[in-house]
Design a protein that fits this description.
The chain is of the alpha+beta class. It has nine helices and eleven strands. The chain has a seven-stranded mixed sheet. Strands 7-8-9-10 form a four-stranded antiparallel sheet. Strand 2 and strand 3 form a beta hairpin. Helix 1 packs antiparallel against helix 2, helix 2 runs antiparallel to helix 3 and helix 8 runs antiparallel to helix 9.
Length: 302
């Protein structure tokens, strides 16, 4: 933590519950964000650049590392961006875009702020964005592990009976249950040297989930928020985060004059301790992260 007034700061996370060994990926992302701020001076471009690094790292549940849906064939990704210059864009249920964070940024330039499903994918085609890479061996291995977990007695999603997914199955293919769940987001928050703030987030969704599920990453005020006092990003189980409008709630603590680290911890305390949850944030004088579990992160301040 630093008490420098203004100046650049970036905080990157790789998902609540992800191994701390993945911190090298967050370090690489933070360095890329720093390089971008040096190049452009724009906080949002720095946040996007950082998230793109994590979307290209198959260890993380975003972009090329996104988890497979329960049918073992479908991928549905969400992403979002927001800054204090007026940019706001999000996508949900994207299936064929290599870097959903770029599509979220593009949406911010349209007449809308949120596109989902087929419409979002069609926009990606119209703009010439690169399509998703073929499903990798690591993605299939994660899916097989999940299916075995769903067949057991340990809940694959906190507080949810595994049989609920069978009861509400809404895929075209028949259920195959059976013949560590994933619910992680990657994200970055940035304070630019000009005092502007930005946040960007991307996720491959939650596993397990029903087809069409949208979590907190694409929901403004839940998974992300940026305002004149700072920027906040959340990670964890979206169904819990959304119920608390967690990012905006934590930002509200800043409005009350609470220091960033205290505000982040208070936000974490709102969620059941058995539900993996993490928060990162930047303000005019601070840059910090908090979680109730292991969470790879990286912080750079200049």
């Amino acid at each position: 933590m630093s008490n420098k007034e203004q100046g650049f700061a970036i905080v990157v996370h790789g998902g609540a519950g992800e191994p701390l060994e993945f911190a090298d990926g967050c370090d690489k992302a933070a360095r890329r964000g720093h390089a971008m701020i040096v190049e452009t001076g724009d906080a949002l471009e720095a946040a996007i650049a950082a998230v793109m690094v994590l979307e290209e790292d198959e260890r993380f549940n975003a972009g090329t590392g996104s988890v497979l849906c329960l049918d073992g064939a479908t991928i549905e990704m969400d992403a979002s961006i927001m800054d204090t210059r007026g940019h706001l864009g999000a996508v949900a249920g994207v299936r064929d875009v290599r870097n959903p964070i770029l599509l979220a940024r593009a949406v911010a330039d349209t007449p809308h702020v949120f596109l989902a499903g087929e419409g979002a994918d069609r926009l990606a085609r119209a703009l010439g964005f690169e399509r998703s890479k073929p499903i990798s061996a690591s993605q299939r291995e994660k899916h097989e592990k999940l299916m075995k977990q769903l067949a057991g007695s340990v809940p694959a999603m906190p507080g949810i009976d595994n049989r609920m997914f069978e009861h509400y199955w809404n895929y075209k293919t028949p259920i195959r249950l059976p013949p560590n769940a994933a619910h992680d987001t990657v994200g970055a928050v940035v304070r630019g040297p000009d005092g502007h703030f930005a946040v960007a987030g991307s996720t491959g969704g939650s596993a397990p989930s029903l087809l069409g599920r949208v979590g907190d990453t694409a929901v403004m005020g839940s998974g992300f928020y940026a305002g004149p006092l700072g920027a906040i990003a959340a990670t964890g189980v979206g169904e819990h985060i959304v119920r608390h409008m967690l990012a905006r709630t934590v930002y509200g603590y800043l409005e009350q004059g609470m220091p960033l680290q205290q505000a982040l911890q208070r936000g974490i305390d709102l969620i059941d301790k058995d539900v993996d949850t993490g928060l990162i944030g930047v303000t005019k004088t601070e840059a910090a992260s908090r979680s109730n579990t292991h969470m790879p992160t990286s912080i750079i301040e200049k």
